[in-house]
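In response to a reviewer's request, we include the raw inputs and outputs for one of the modeled complexes. The two entities were modeled together in a single run.
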Amino acid sequence: MTAAKYDVLGIGNAIFDILVQTDEGFLVRHGMTKGGMALIDEERAIAVYQSMGPATEMSGGSAANTIVGLANLGARAAYIGKVRDDQIGRLYTHDIRAAGVTFETKAAADGPATGCSYILVTPDGQRTMNTYLGAAQELTSADIDAAQVAASAFTYLEGYLWDPKNAKEAFVKAAAIAHGAGRQVALTLSDSFCVDRYRDEFLDLMRKGTIDLIFANEAELHSLYQTSDFDTALTQLREDTKLGIVTRSEKGCVVTSTDGVVAVPAFPIDRMVDTTGAGDLFAAGFLFGLVRGAGHENAGRLGALAAAEVIQHIGARPQASLKELAQQNGLPV
Amino acid sequence: MTAAKYDVLGIGNAIFDILVQTDEGFLVRHGMTKGGMALIDEERAIAVYQSMGPATEMSGGSAANTIVGLANLGARAAYIGKVRDDQIGRLYTHDIRAAGVTFETKAAADGPATGCSYILVTPDGQRTMNTYLGAAQELTSADIDAAQVAASAFTYLEGYLWDPKNAKEAFVKAAAIAHGAGRQVALTLSDSFCVDRYRDEFLDLMRKGTIDLIFANEAELHSLYQTSDFDTALTQLREDTKLGIVTRSEKGCVVTSTDGVVAVPAFPIDRMVDTTGAGDLFAAGFLFGLVRGAGHENAGRLGALAAAEVIQHIGARPQASLKELAQQNGLPV
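The model returned the following structure tokens for the whole complex.
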């Protein structure tokens, strides 16, 4: 095994976020399930957007947010995801490259526009997402650069990749290349409804060892094991994966591995503004800890710190230097 | 004179903002004058954007920000400005209409893309703008809807309109229609460098009575009268315009009129994040006060309140209900 060129390679749906602060009534009137991610078609996207208030736009996408967080912390990071060669695709490409991420996936020259998520942020800071996959659906296994995967210490995949038709194949191909090169593969379960859609497939990936690390929040964990009891679910997770990291919002996180179970508290915040990207940035901090050889506790603290930064402003990309924040808080960078 | 259908009609350069937080060194390395607005061509726009970090995007444009603030406060507001019918133009059109603003200017079907401003926000909250006018340059007097101008109690114009070649004519046409219908015309001086470019023309507009109200910040006022003495400049302003409103950042504002001079303090803030839109939102609050028949002092307080909201987050559009904020602070809405 040669030295890794990249610390983490992320593969995911490249999605541009259109964010608006709204009230709870909006979600009710439009039949939206609060806190979830609903897939919408173009017609519904137009209808949702027309009913939305004035918005802020920002590049997003779950794995992409994680990868940008990693680069912001100082990791060597790369990303694979599909945009269209349109104005929004160019904004997207700028943002991820400007963050220091290697991003070489060829933009689609035709077909649907760059994917967008219409994100409603309620006064409690909770986000509800309506995602039009657009060009993200065009990601295929041909977009997986084998040399890049083999050269990455971790390949980080999002559960959302199970939604677009051809991305599963890309996902499985990447995992096989990574393991063939002696690298590790991480998966975030993405969303409890996503777990509902693909529960058996995700469990199969875990149990067959296609995945080495699992990131999940409580709702996703409960959905995965169809239980409302946290300890029961955690015990099962520990059996099914070498390393499982469960985020619990203001209760911090729990890390389960062959070494045992470690709980890490949340990082204190002044005011929760927008939870968009909380899980993504937690994963960034945690993976960064692993990359730097930190123990699970310090990795969890780095995750908590990165998540705390992103929930105190609108949008899922960091607005401060996470590296400086970590240094100020005595965490390893 | 019939009752006005709109409280305020704004006419300006329709510009989409691409905002990034950066350090002072960036401005120095790229030869940018801190706090100003520099006009850039497409080649320079590409170079500036390539050197910028990951950004947040949001609709902007000085007069448009003011008009959105007015609508947010509850005024009947309309806007005239030119975008292209591209993805960014559609985001722009959505945002201004979703704010409750009547916006009917036909998007350009060809020619340059929707205008963009690349905005660098330094740690002190100051913003430095690099504006590519794009489709905004296509605004002509044919875009001025005479009935709409005649039906607006105030027509609000931005000094930046003096930059694109054909917009001056649109500006002058709108002012003539407004006065013909017995309405009032307001102008913001926009930027001290803009005043430098068009000093004599602006003074001429004021002295000929094309303009009834002038909004300026201290730097613009000093540039207009080419003096570093505030009181000297203010005395001249009082001679040249019926109503002059000068914003002074943390020192609040001064309103000069035939009734005398009134000073109003700034509104207290927790933390200055981004001054983009501070003057625009001040104008929104002040004009809203005039529309509601408030005195100059309360109009100034409304301006200070709206400015305080917008400088505490990234971007020049309000993220809270200014109407609720005003009510909470006992101001007339």
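As requested, we also summarize the result in words. The longest strand of chain B covers residues 15-21. Chain B touches chain A at residues 18, 21, 49-50, 52-59, 68, 86-88, 91, 94-96, 98-99, 113, 313-315, 317, 319-320 (CB under 8 Å).
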